[in-house]
């Protein structure tokens, strides 16, 4: 094994003493497998992202001890949960120690009276819900990576949920959590001091500060979550339209209808339908006049889902929707909970199939701006594909983020033939990502509704997006992580340690 | 139950062209046209029973996902029929 000089004995001895030999991994497989996430990745430079060491702590105390050791020796630390994120949060940019929290996957308490549970950050939502089902309860945090992402990662990225329009997103569903700061100090973060409070006005509201930081401020280890009754009923109709404008009008009306059981709506544009016609069993046989799609989803008690469902169906019908039938609707919606199982291949310009990775660029966009953003994003990807026959436009989805239809998680899916990447094509991809982010900002949106914005390309525009808020980020980073050990290199936060202390000082 | 014969299993039914890019060998089981997988993707012999097993497994998985999230799936077609009436 070769490790960085600062990681040689006796640091390794200290870590083994805290964690036990079997939980300090130095092998090649353990380290290379924790070098990347499904986000765009320069595979031709994989070796630059490999950590020196992987540790598997089993408790908050062990995480704290690992961080203390790392801080004392100025060794970079990268927290890693499911490693399913679509930004670079869990990718080591400066090697160092990856702290993988998957062993911390216990259910510590289920409080039926207050409708909460307390879990280790390494637990997966699907596995948690299998247990909660016996109590008639559910934790409705539902990303596309539902079967494989973990609660701690949802905190670190401030995750977005498919059914967030009904139940809220990770920031709403996580009530409080234990958090290890870059010095090793452990704090409890939530509304006020309580573990199970959903609203407090005492002190600064730190919960949001310590969510969505992409591992740059510390490591969540234990969380208390809000629970709901497991739904009696689900409704998930899919509708076809002959043009984008009709589908766009319909999704807006569905989202603005104020139906209490409404959990979300999704709009598929023409490029997405074209993509699905290549190899999705539900859409291959659809007639040629199907050019755009909308789905709406509702959860709740059977009587309320039926009542709300009638209203949603009436809205769709009045807008000229053609219902795709129960089989297609139910099959497609069930598959939305598990997009990471999608077969990955795309087409080069000749039409030939090639193995491709799925890359998803997202933004938060207001409803009124969706049509124009869509056209400009597709044009960016078209130009990229014209130059490099290794990129494929897989179309766009827009998902409601809230129950009023104000804004949408807007994403363009791009297939990349990663094995063909080189420095020139990677640089072009990074430029395209920056251009995509620039469009989002120009239309009054945010660079990301869901994934985070710390990847190459879009990260350059974060100071522009946040303005004076970015200066505060620099000050906060420097105050909480004086030695810049926690996930260094992300979000441009290194500038907080420059001689002038960043522009916020 | 029919007897298993290797030669039968490794010879898929005749393909029907469904679209310019997709074919169908078994009912409602669509495949990318093999012509499009002739340059960069290597083809392999795939037993018929395994194709059907994978399709059935996918349906099992989707059924499981529905019951994981809710006890019952409401038929949107039934709601639409009510509105039409």
Automatic annotation (TrEMBL), chain A:
The keyword Flavoprotein applies. Its EC number is 1.1.2.4. The keyword Transit peptide applies. InterPro entries: FAD-bd_oxidored_4_C, FAD-bd_PCMH, FAD-bd_PCMH-like_sf, FAD-bd_PCMH_sub2, FAD-linked_Oxase-like_C, Oxid_FAD_bind_N, Vanillyl_alc_oxidase_C-sub2. Keywords: FAD, Flavoprotein, Oxidoreductase, Transit peptide. It comes from the Bacteria. GO terms for molecular function: D-lactate dehydrogenase (cytochrome) activity; D-lactate dehydrogenase (NAD+) activity; FAD binding. Its cofactor is FAD. Residues 47-230 form the FAD-binding PCMH-type domain. Transmembrane segments: none annotated. Pfam families: FAD-oxidase_C, FAD_binding_4. GO terms for biological process: lactate catabolic process. PANTHER family: D-LACTATE DEHYDROGENASE, D-LACTATE DEHYDROGENASE, MITOCHONDRIAL-RELATED. Belongs to the FAD-binding oxidoreductase/transferase type 4 family. This is D-lactate dehydrogenase (cytochrome). It comes from Streptomyces abyssalis.
UniProtKB/TrEMBL annotation, chain B:
It comes from the Bacteria. It comes from Streptomyces abyssalis. This is Uncharacterized protein.
